[in-house]
Automatic annotation (TrEMBL):
PANTHER family: SULFATE TRANSPORTER YBAR-RELATED (PTHR43310:SF1). The keyword Transmembrane applies. InterPro entries: Membrane-Transporter-like, SLC26A/SulP_dom, STAS_dom, STAS_dom_sf. One of its GO terms (cellular component) is membrane. It is found in: Membrane. It is a multi-pass membrane protein. This is SulP family inorganic anion transporter. It comes from the Bacteria. The chain crosses the membrane at residues 32-53, 59-75, 103-127, 134-151, 157-175, 182-201, 234-253, 274-295, 315-348, 368-398.
């Protein structure tokens, strides 16, 4: 019996099926090992983000566990990693400092509720309005930010850190060329940890980042008064957290779609992020969203494709910090730095900065990408970078389209009388219709004027106003204007907004 070609050469969609993966030991091993590597990498990150937020390290670690497990079950983007993040930590830190942990936990829960509501009203559909160059800028900025976050681990440290980090880089870059049986990042972590332990080298390790928890997370109800005053305090932070978390999660999901050549359910992912934050809040966690660095470790470095890897990442994280905390504390930071530098290299879109690409790409497109990168890196806020990038792209598009409108003038005979016919070409909206008023010869034209709109479309009230100004100007000179060729949508808009019948 010939082999099943679908089994030998699975499609990307088949590869992310949980049931198929459970039946294939090779695929399952990839998912489990990918989750293990991500679980190890999450530990120092979660601790560091807890410090940024001003809370106990256990708050970040428990949040990473609950976020990963909940999103693994409910999320719409398989293999994407969600956990405690720096973006959320930066948003929430001022509230922790001013009102304490209980208000902070209440904010996480409220942010989750807001995300669920936003998902139900269709906020995920707004992703279609994010241009590709903004996405490229987002990816490149993330790679730069991840690299910058590793720099402090390489300063004011024992000299042994540098050869260890170099060895780790050699492993993660070279090993995949020979074998992919075991993820290269996991090999790097194990090898460097064994070297440090065997030779008793005194180098910074995970244990130096903070105390690991010794018990499982428990349910927690924030002790805050249920009043309007409390809502006024936490609502601004909750809205900011919800928006930043959703934006980063949906952008990361779109990136994973491209990497895996599959599609994801963005609406499902949006409400799953909200549910995960609600669950995290009731377990005393700091909340979070998708993490592009750990996601790239899982998807690109480890080759994982299903929810199994995300679920394993959360479970392994909890086991590692609660049961094997003493062993995990021995992992040298040099190993994790090497892994994250590899992630930066793999994440950055090198094609976007090649001289040949920059030469071929329109300057406006390159500007959009650079604005997104600079704004994100400068503010350390992905939401600001993406929003500015989209605004610049909108302005560039409006400016470019505005120049596509033309008006051609032609003298014709109509019923034995001279007439003038203007043919308008192009899409008319607020940017392109501003100069429409100046394209007609009001004083010199004969008494009958025909404006042919067959090759144009009216998009907004600004265009209707511009067209009304043209007809009013001709009436001032005692001339009759006839507008012909409006398509149905444009005619209805002019009838409604212009307050007049159609000629």
């Amino acid at each position: 019996m010939p082999p099943d070609s679908a089994r030998l050469n699975p499609t990307p969609e088949e590869r992310q099926s949980v049931l198929r993966t459970l039946k294939r030991p090779g695929w399952l091993k990839t998912e489990i090992l990918g989750g293990l590597v991500v679980g190890l990498a999450l530990i120092p990150e979660a601790i560091a983000f807890s410090v940024i937020a001003g809370v106990d390290p256990r708050v970040g670690l428990f949040a990473s566990f609950t976020m990963a497990v909940t999103v693994a079950i409910l999320g719409g983007r398989p293999a994407m990693i969600s956990a405690a993040t720096g973006a959320v930590a930066l948003v929430i830190a001022p509230l922790v400092a001013s009102h304490g942990t209980d208000y902070f936990i209440a904010t996480v829960i409220l942010a989750g509720l807001i995300q669920v509501i936003l998902a139900l009203v269709g906020v995920a559909r707004l992703m279609r309005f994010i241009p590709r160059q903004v996405m490229v800028g987002f990816v490149n900025a993330l790679a730069i930010l991840i690299f910058i976050a590793q720099v402090p681990e390489l300063f004011d440290v024992p000299w042994l850190v540098y050869p260890l980090c170099l060895l780790g880089l050699i492993i993660v870059f070279v090993l995949p060329k020979f074998t992919s049986i075991v993820p290269a990042p996991l090999v790097a972590i194990v090898v460097l940890t064994l070297l440090v332990v065997l030779f008793a080298w005194d180098v910074p390790n995970v244990g130096d980042k903070g105390q690991l928890p010794e018990s499982l997370p428990t349910l927690l109800v924030p002790q805050v008064p249920l009043t309007l005053e409390t809502l006024k305090i936490i609502a601004p932070y909750a809205v900011a957290m919800a928006l930043v978390g959703l934006l980063e999660s949906l952008m990361t999901a779109k990136l994973v779609d491209d990497v895996t050549d599959t599609r994801s359910n963005k609406t499902r992912e949006s409400w799953a992020q909200g549910v995960a934050n609600i669950v995290t809040g009731f377990f005393g966690g700091m909340g979070g969203c998708a993490m592009i660095g750990q996601t790239m470790i899982n998807v690109r470095a480890s080759g994982a494709r299903t929810r199994i890897s995300t679920f394993c990442a959360g479970v392994f994280l909890l086991i590692l910090v609660v049961v094997l905390g003493d062993i995990v504390a021995l992992i040298p930071m040099a190993a994790l730095v090497a892994v994250m530098i590899f992630v930066c290299w793999a994440t950055f879109d090198w094609h976007s900065i090649r001289p040949s690409t920059l030469k071929r790409m329109p300057k406006s497109e390159t500007t959009v990408m650079l604005v997104t990168v600079v704004a994100t890196v400068w503010t350390n806020n992905l939401a600001i970078g993406v929003i500015l990038g989209v605004l610049v792209a909108m302005v560039a598009f409006a400016n470019r389209v505005a120049h596509f409108v033309s008006v051609n003038r032609e003298i014709v005979e109509s019923d034995g009388r001279p007439s003038v016919r203007y043919t308008v070409n192009g899409e008319l909206f607020f940017a392109s219709s501003n100069d429409l008023y100046t394209m007609f010869d009001y004083a010199e034209d004969p008494e009958r004027v025909i404006i042919d709109m067959h090759q144009s479309h009216l998009w907004d009230a600004s265009t209707i106003a511009a067209l009304d100004s043209v007809t009013d100007k001709y009436e001032h000179y005692g001339k009759h204007v006839e507008i012909v060729g409006l398509n149905d949508a444009s005619a209805r808009m002019r009838a409604r907004l212009g307050g007049q019948g159609l000629s």
